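Data card: per-record layout.
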Amino acid sequence: MDSSRTFSIHFWLKTAKNKGDFAPIYARVTVDGKRAEISLKRQTKVTYWDTKSKKTTSRTPEGKELNAYLDQVKSKLLLCYKQLTSDFELVTANSIKARFVGQDEKHKTLMDLVVYHNENMSGILKQGTLKNYYTTENYLRRFLVKKKKTTDIYLKHLKYSFIIDFEQYLRKGPSLQNANPLNNNGIMKHLERLRKLMNFAMDLEWLDKNPFGRYKLKFNRHKKEFLSKEELKVFEEAIIHDKGHQKVLDIFLFSCYTGLSFTDVKNLTEDNISRGIDGDYWIFTQREKNEQPVKIPLLDIAWNILKKYAPYSEKNNGQLLPVFSNQKINVYLKEIASSLKINKNLTFHSARHTFATTVMLSNGVPIETVSKLLGHTKISTTQIYARVLEEKISVDIKNLKNKFQELNKMNKENVRSISNS
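The structure for this 421-residue chain is written out next.
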């Protein structure tokens, strides 16, 4: 490639934008005859401007400061030109301007990254996941303003200390919803999303070194609540007078006997119910979370709940069940559990857990089958549910012992029969 090229920097007044005696100052970068104009956000009196020296003739402190600034601008533009040349980048008037104003890839900011990610992930990530990224963005913007006294920061300035400072801000500051700080796992979720953003920046080559390189996320493990056989029976036989609580109880039980998540239950319509290979009614749907197809035979309790709400379905375009918001359901569930003297912190997800453990695994359904019914892509995910079934482990070991005893007994009988013969 021919390395000879013309390059020049020229300062001038844009008199077309005069305001009285003052006019704004622009820089014009020219490379091989192609121009790019840059507003310097400065102005001076037209009568003080020297068109030969491209500076102000004012002797005031303000005039001297302006000329010093113009010298800095010229030096920075020359540096941008040298950087692009030494990096074997395409050198044009516009690429120099982009480097100067911080709009090229070497000067991307954290908010550039967040906006670019959210715009490009729309339609790829689930709406709920994308909503969580918007929440993380809000926390980052608040953190930058309150703790860093700025509205943005260059990616190349992000260090390990930035991650630590952001974590402490989340721990000590108020949450977006109320005055209370976030809990540990909520904080880790925001940091996990920020780490994914940094990985995204690395893939885009907007970042040379990942500030999360030595940072470890520290999630607290919580006990996953589910109903035992006895507690599930209490729920099934409960008499609830409040209509809202009764609906929540029914929908919760429906999930206990189908394993569907809140979103998947809410999205169920008549189109999802069809005859299965055995001639009985099955649910044919696709998990919202991972788009994994699931086929679930309808147990009697779940089928009876659907029949109970058939009138609702007829009036609501085939939607099968009257599902409230997840937040409202979780509040009602805690009230129902309290009224039934069940001392557990139940959420709607507890139903899915109850299905996997109490309804399926503890009744001898193989874990491979349970994994298919839950729509898990990996059986290791299903094994999380199986770990809590000490009762099932005990039964399995007893069965194994019985098999060994029967085998030993058979071996002894075979030995006797051989000896007698």
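Known properties of this structure: Residues 7-104 form one domain. The CA atoms of residues 95 and 286 lie 47 Å apart.

See the next section for split statistics.
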